[in-house]
Amino acid sequence: MAQELSGKKIAILVENGFERVEMTKPRQALNDAGAQTYLISPQRDKVQGWKRGHSIACGLLY
Description:
The chain has 1 helix and 5 strands, in the order E-H-E-E-E-E. By secondary structure, it is of the alpha/beta class. The model has no long low-confidence stretch (mean pLDDT 91).
């Protein structure tokens, strides 16, 4: 796959109640296209997904 987004930085805003696949699939596609993705949330620590057990750590706050 060509690196159409090489060198681009993209923020992905994530909040409690997110649907895992709606975050992971687009993020993987962006990474595959060469972008650097950053997960950003309004809180520190982990963000809880819609389903129990699906949580992620975010590196930046908004």
